[in-house]
Amino acid sequence: MIISVNDVLTLDDDNKYVVVSKVLHNDINYYYIIELDETEEDITDNGLIVKDGNNDELEVVEDEKELEVVQEMLAKSFEINFGSSEE
Amino acid sequence: MVNQDTIIEIINNRLQMIKLLKAQPEPDLVEIDSVMWDILGDVLYLDEEHKKRINEIEAREVNTLEEEVEKRREIYELSRTHSEMILGLFNPEIEEEKQLLSLFEEMRYDAKFTEADYNLMRKQVSELKNRKEEIQELIQSAVPFEDMEKEFKESYAKFIKDNKIDSLNIDEINNAIISNAEIKKINERSRELLKTAKGIDKKEFSSLEKISDAEKRYEEALENEFLIKLRDLMSIEVNNYSELLQRTKKIEKLVLEREEAKYGSPLMNFGNTEQINENYYRSLFFMNDVRKVEHQVNLLPNIERLKNEISTISKRIEEVYGKFNSNKTIEEMIMGYKEVEPLPEKNSEYTGPVAQENQIVLANEKTNENNEILEESEKTGKRFSYKDRIKGKFYIVKAKAQGSFPVLKTIEEKTKNILDKIKNYSKRKSNYLKGKTKVILYKAKAKSKLISKISENKRKIIKNLGILAISGAIVGSTALAASNSQNKIEPVNEPGISMTIEQESNEKNDLIQLENDIDEVYEEIENYVPAIGDKIHVNDNVDLFRSSVGDNNNKKVKESDYFINRIAIVDKNSNKGKVLISSTNAGVSIDDLIRERKLKEGSFVAMAHLATGINGNFVEADSSKASQDDYGWVQVDENMLQNIKILESGLEMSEEKGISL
After folding, report:
1. Which one of A29, A40, B342, B483 has the minimum C-beta count within 10 Å?
2. Straight-line distance from the first to the last Cα atom of chain A, in angstroms, rounded to the nearest whole number
3. How far, rounded to the nearest angstrom, does the alpha carbon of residue B475 sit from its chain's CA centroid?
4. Residue B258 CB neighbour total at 10 angstroms
5. Taking each helix axis from N to C terminus, what angle separates B106-140 and B330-337, rounded to the nearest 10 degrees?
């Protein structure tokens, strides 16, 4: 499944997440996804950094070094998609 | 079979009798104890009857997932009312009833499990249902190309006729454009000059304020030119949906360009329809044509996507719930949920969605794996491991093992049943709720309102993303709170962002709490090694020794909370009970002593010394003399471990002090 920014994903924890940032690093797609609230029209504070797993699975990134690298990239990608946070 | 109401009445009468027995000048404790055992028997009888009813429901064969959901609802309702009925019998304010109540506390968990079962199943089935219905709607909306093209042609013919396009002459139009364009250009320039001109009488130029006839003719010519181009596009012959889509897109482009040329920009670009221009609805009409064709072109991929999602959800259901009691496969059950009807006769030419069967891949391997796990739990359930003591269950087991209670088999089965549920639940938990891998069930596009919210909260999102790198992949609720407190990062409180802790469903919180409780008990009991400083609750099934070498006077420990203040390892083979190593240092565990002496398993007996503590606090003992709060020794064996509850760990003391034997 191809996942893009602005996709809303329903995961098996029964929550919906919106993809706000996506980067390719070492041939792996990483995403920053944010949980939606009950109205599904607003975001919550709950976010996850995940990467492509097997089939339609997403793996939660936990490795500190990996997180450090992709976090910066995801932040940049987010600003490209939605504009600078300073705006 | 005795009526349930009668049993309840008997229990109530027995409880009343206990009150009277206690109120006697010299209460007969043996008789009180005996009545309590009778009540236990009564409750277990009720429980057994309840279990039979549950088994009957569980054994009921189902044909659809909807029936399976209903089955689980019935089980939940039954478990809930049963636990409420039993637990409601006892008053926790009365000591004897409190003791009885504690034996059946796990019934609350029983009801919770069944509730969780029901809710999770219901949600999954609802997801399936939605997709099945979506597929059904897509199939129903399928239109053969020829029908669609016929509809378009009729619509276009009407448009051409209404706008009298066929009567237009392209040469005349071109002439009108050329001849009036120059006047329009001059007028536009003059209007600009008029704005800045000085020393003139503006009335002299009042004609410039109006749109001249030449300009009107120019606009009319442009519109007619557009209509002719539109007619030419409408006349393009197409042979399939792909070509039809291209044609409708060309038309869409043309009408939007025309609207933009006339009004600066198509109205829908702004999303503001308060001041609608005269071309707006025309643009909308042709844009809608594109959507109609796109819908048809995307039918197959969309149906395929929904099928894949159904397959994913089905696999999850199988993984989480194992096999159902049905002679149908899960695929048949899903199909049976709402049969997919064949396409209407008129669509018979359309070889899209109906040509393919729904392909639901069964996760057989997982099912087998689940079966194996269940077998394992059965094995462990047969012996009374530490896990068997969860929520006080062991006390009953121990009592009937001593022969004072007649229904040994019943309790064993009951215990196993609960254990299986807990184990199954833990399995589900790792697969389902807390997995580090998340499965995508469904994908859709974010609505514009949501995208706006993201844009509005850019700063907060970036900040949370930064926190993620510190707190480890998951931000929000407790993870966010923890990282904030540790790293001094203040969350930005901006309007429009909702805090989700409160919004999480009670059900999910209950489940997480429940599984945490269970895990805690498991971990605590499985890994427990007595250490000095531990606070434990010991019941009266444990033998009490006067010394570490095992002097016993057939005494039992008085049930209470104790601290372990000494530990000793005694030579098993020595007749006199030789102490190999001992310690009074806080934080030192039995394992530490065994490692220190490199003792072989089976060659020693471990002993722990209990102390009452002083003012509720642990006091480190003196190795050379007795302590004020010394109570006695207990042998650290399976019996002891099965008759204690760990209240506080003393191991932390070793971390503070460094281990010293």
Report:
1. B342
2. 33
3. 17
4. 21
5. 60
Cβ within 8 Å of residue A84, ≥6 positions away: B458
The chain B residue lying nearest A40, using CA atoms, is B450
**What is d(CA B226, CA B234) in angstroms, rounded to the nearest whole number?**
12
Across the interface, of B442, B453, B503, the residue whose CB is closest to A41 is B453
Interface pTM, i.e. ipTM = 0.89
Residue B490 pLDDT greater than 50, yes or no: no
**Residues 6+ away with beta carbon under 8 Å from A47:** A32, A33, A34, A35, B461, B464, B465, B468, B474, B475, B476
Half-sphere exposure of B550 (CA within 13 A, CB side): 16
Do residues B453 and A42 make contact, with C-beta atoms less than 8 angstroms apart?
Answer: yes
Residue B105, H or E segment = none
| Pair of tokens at residue A35 | 């949980």
Contact B578, B543 (CB under 8 A): no
Rounded Cα distance, B382 and B413, in Å: 9
Of the candidates B248, B182, B263, B174, the one whose C-alpha atom is nearest the C-alpha of residue B215 is B182
CA atoms of B376 and B370, how far apart (whole Å) = 10
List the structure tokens of B456.
Answer: 């509005």
Per residue in B385-437, pLDDT (tens digit) is: 223 322 223 222 222 223 222 222 222 333 334 334 434 443 443 333 333 67
Which residues are CB-neighbours of B199 under 8 A, at least 6 positions away? Answer: none
Q: Which amino acid is at B515?
A: E
Q: Is the Cβ–Cβ distance between B148 and B297 less than 8 Å? A: no
Distance separating alpha carbons of residues B187 and B192, to the nearest angstrom = 9
Closest residue, chain A, to B442 (C-alpha): A10
Which token pair is B457? 């909260």
Tell me if residue A52 falls in helix, strand or coil: strand
**What pLDDT digit, counting tens, does each position of B158-183 carry?**
999 999 999 999 899 998 888 888 88
- Taking alpha carbons only, the member of B109, B105, B126, B120 closest to residue B72 is B120
Q: Are A51 and A22 a contacting pair, CB within 8 Å?
A: no
The residue ranking higher by pLDDT, B527 or A4, is A4
Cα separation, B473 vs A73, whole angstroms: 14
Task: Single out the residue of B299, B367, B317 nearest to residue B148, CA to CA.
Answer: B299
Q: Which pLDDT score, from 0 to 100, does residue B106 have?
A: 76
3 state DSSP class of B613: coil
The residue among A2, A12, A52 with the most chain B CBs within 10 A of its CB, best to mutate, is A12
Residue B390's nearest CA partner among B645, B136, B131, B91 is B645
Packing angle of the helix pair B29-59, B95-103 (nearest 10 deg): 30
- Residue B103 and residue B40: Cα distance in Å, rounded? 9
Cα gap B397→B383, rounded to integer Å: 11
User: pTM for the complete prediction?
Assistant: 0.39
Helix B213-234 vs helix B241-263: angle between axes, to the nearest 10 degrees?
A: 170
Question: How far is A25 from chain B, CA to nearest CA, in Å?
Answer: 16
CB contact, 8 Å: B475 with chain A?
yes
Length of chain B: 661
Give the whole-angstrom CA distance, residue B601 versus residue B594. Answer: 9
